[in-house]
Amino acid sequence: MPSDPDLKRLHWRAHHRGTKEADLMIGGFFDAHHASWTQSERALFSAMLEEQDVDIMAWALGTCEPPARFAGPMIEALKNLDYVRIAR
Known about the structure:
Layout: H1 5-15, H2 20-33, H3 39-48, H4 53-61, H5 73-80
Helix pairs in contact: 1-2
């Protein structure tokens, strides 16, 4: 877990979404990418966490276009889905 208080808060919010699927997808995305984020990217992720899980997941799966304010590199990384760990 990150030691920075802001990152700790984002970590908690990303991993406690309400459904296992959202926790895995959104939390997994945070785990894979947060270390390289700038302050503005942290702010963008924080704003994205204010959205509904079904919307975030639809953006990740490509079944729905994200709002213009979220379009860009973060959503493109979210679409890769290579950060979701699948138990076997």
